[in-house]
Amino acid sequence: MKTAIYYDDLFLLHDTQNGHPENANRLRVIRRRLEETGLWQQLSRPITHRCTREFLELNHTRQHIQRIISACENAPASLDPDTVVSARSYDAAVLAVSALVEAVDAVMAGELHNAFCAVRPPGHHAEKDRAMGFCLFNNIALAAHHLLNHHQLERILIIDWDVHHGNGTQQAFYDSPQVYFLSLHQWPLYPGTGRPDEVGSGAGKGYNRNVIFAPGTPADTYMQTFEEVIPAVFEQFSPQFVLISAGFDAHKDDPLAQLQLTEDHFAAMTRLVLQQAAAHCNGRVVASLEGGYNLMALANSVERHVRELMQVGS
Ligand SMILES: [Zn+2]
After folding, report:
1. I want to staple 22 with a disulfide (CB 3.0 to 4.6 A). Which of 97, 134, 225, 295 is the partner?
2. Whole-model pTM?
3. With the C-alpha atoms ordered 170, 171, 175, 176, is the resulting torsion angle positive or negative?
4. Residue 21: CB partners within 8 Å, gap ≥ 6?
5. 137-165: pLDDT as tens digits
């Protein structure tokens, strides 16, 4: 087995209340689809790792962590107008981070080629001291910190193809030359950051890249840009590990944005990243679910994404 899916039913207990687009049905439809196709039985793994509060402090302030714990004790509670928690949200959020750490460790150990973390809450909007945009802790940023600190890697590439800008991940590594953050997103759109002139600061200048698309941009235009930018970034940065903030809300059917991709495009994007990763870093890739709010589009896209991950090495 060379690809794994990390998931736990605890993620369903992060209850975001009535009608919230980021709800447990997102993971239920993913799981059902992967079960129906036999992929779940083949690939899913339990999450055994439990990261500590100290680990969360690699990317978040103590006050931020305490605010989330307190909010859960007083649940239901809102951390911002979009970001609500239930009693088990802190536990689910910590387990989401733990899933990524476990996936990264398994890939670094050579037990896996790659992995997909079917987690919620998502993470890429979470800043060091602020929960926002449905995100509590920055899952992907913490995975990058783990690769730097524990595995002593020096060049991590984070590709964020969620349709929204990954403001929290950008903030985490804005002055670092060790983590290259590439975000492709619709603009203007929530959260309002992510302009192309945000290129990093200090030693990190040149290691942050925002690629923007106007609402309604044709899929062919998006793909042409993607196929230019991805190989160029790999060539320039030569990453040792690739993390994907895999949101699927750039899908044409997604209710929260106006890009035009289909599951075919997500498959092609996955394929290109894997080809580049094979050439530069032994194919070390861990992807983590971010957005994606049309349930049918989400199930279709995740299935195609996972099938591409499985092609590696087989
Ligand atoms: Zn999104």
Report:
1. 134
2. 0.98
3. negative
4. 134, 255, 256, 293
5. 999 999 999 999 999 999 999 999 999 99
The H-assigned helical ranges of 153-262 are 167-172, 219-237
Q: What is the mean pLDDT of the chain?
A: 97
For ligand 1, a single-atom ion, the residues with CB < 5 A are 162, 164, 247, 249, 291
Q: What pLDDT is stored for residue 1 in this prediction?
A: 53
What is the model's pLDDT at position 301?
98
d(CA 207, CA 236): 10
DSSP of 34-73 = HHHTTHHHHHEE-------HHHHTTTS-HHHHHHHHHHHH
Q: What is the CATH number of domain 3-311?
A: 3.40.800.20
The structural domains of the chain, with segments of one domain joined by +, span 3-311
Average pLDDT over every residue of 271-285: 98
